[in-house]
UniProtKB/TrEMBL annotation:
Record localization: Golgi apparatus membrane
Organism phylogeny: Eukaryota, Viridiplantae, Streptophyta, Embryophyta, Tracheophyta
Species: Acer saccharum (Sugar maple)
tRNA-binding is among the record's keywords: no
GO cellular component: cytosol; Golgi membrane; trans-Golgi network
This protein's name: Protein SYS1 homolog
TM annotation in the entry: 12-36, 65-83, 90-110, 116-136
UniProt keyword list: Golgi apparatus, Membrane, Protein transport, Transmembrane, Transmembrane helix, Transport
Record keyword Transmembrane helix present: yes
InterPro entries per the UniProt record, alphabetical: Integral_membrane_SYS1-rel
Length: 152
C-alpha cells in the first residue's frame, strides 16, 4: 500500500468500523466461551454488555475481565491487517469502545461500576497502543529490492 495522497472514502471507514466491531465481539465471544462458559450454566449477552458482570470479587468476574483484555490484544492484531496505519489506531479503538459503551447503556444502563470503566479504559489503551506499535513496526520494515546482478 502506498501512503501518498489518500482519498477520503467514508464507505471504507464505515466498513472498517463494522469489521473491527464484529471481529471484536466474535473474539470476545470465543474468549468468554472458553473462560466463562465452563464456569456458568448458561452463557448469555449479560457477560458481553452488563457492567455488573465485570467484578473483581468473583472468579467468574476475573474471567470476564481476562476475556475483555485478551480481546483488546486480539483487536490490536485486527487493526494491523484492517486499518494498516499507526495514526488511525487510536481513532478506531476509541470508536469501537464508544460504540460498546452505547450498546452497554442501551442494554443495562449507564455503567456505575468503577471496575467496568477501568477494564474498558485499559482495553482501549492496550488496543490503541499495541495496534500503533504493530503498525509502526510494519511501516518501518525495509522494502525488499531484488537485485538483478549479484556482484554489484
Amino acid at each position: 500500500m502506498f501512503y501518498g495522497a489518500v482519498v477520503w472514502d467514508p464507505w471504507l471507514i464505515v466498513a472498517q468500523i463494522v469489521c473491527i466491531q464484529c471481529l471484536y465481539y466474535l473474539t470476545l465471544g470465543v474468549f468468554l466461551t472458553i473462560l466463562v462458559g465452563t464456569r456458568v450454566s448458561r452463557l448469555s449477552l449479560v457477560y458481553f454488555f452488563d457492567f455488573a458482570t465485570i467484578t473483581a470479587s468473583t472468579v467468574t468476574g476475573w474471567c470476564v475481565i481476562a476475556s475483555m483484555l485478551l480481546t483488546s490484544v486480539a483487536g490490536a492484531g485486527y487493526m494491523l491487517y484492517l486499518i494498516e496505519r499507526a495514526k488511525k489506531c487510536l481513532d478506531f479503538s476509541a470508536t469501537l469502545y464508544i460504540i460498546h459503551l452505547c450498546i452497554c447503556i442501551i442494554y443495562g444502563g449507564l455503567p456505575s461500576s468503577i471496575t467496568w470503566w477501568v477494564v474498558n479504559g485499559t482495553g482501549l489503551a492496550v488496543m490503541a497502543l499495541l495496534g500503533e506499535y504493530l503498525c509502526i513496526r510494519r511501516e518501518l520494515r525495509e522494502i525488499p529490492i531484488s537485485r538483478y546482478r549479484a556482484d554489484v
